[in-house]
Design brief:
Helices cover about 35% and strands about 10% of the residues. It is mostly helical and about 80 residues long. The chain has a domain of about 25 residues. It has a two-stranded antiparallel sheet with strand order 1-2. A hairpin with a 2-residue loop joins strand 1 and strand 2.
């Protein structure tokens, strides 16, 4: 049986000295420039890395990568 361990607020990134409802301050990020995107595309090509979009099928709280699996589960739900 797996053991469980309580996670302290320190590990959750909560600081007890700040009020919980105070909004987090984030560092603004710079949008990628065309030259950066071109450089990344060139580097991907050099290493043979490709980008493939993935379709997900959502049913309730679950996500499926194959439509047939989502349909099969939906049919099982309807039968019960």
């Amino acid at each position: 049986m797996p053991t469980t361990k309580k996670i302290s607020s320190k590990h959750l990134g909560r600081n007890k000295s700040k009020p919980q409802n105070e909004p987090r301050r984030t560092v603004p990020t710079r949008p990628r420039t065309k030259s950066k995107e071109t450089a990344l595309a060139s580097e991907m090509a050099a290493y043979g890395i490709t980008h493939v979009p993935v379709d997900y099928f959502h049913l309730g709280a679950f996500r499926y990568t194959h439509l047939n699996d989502a349909l099969a589960q939906a049919k099982r739900i309807v039968q019960n």
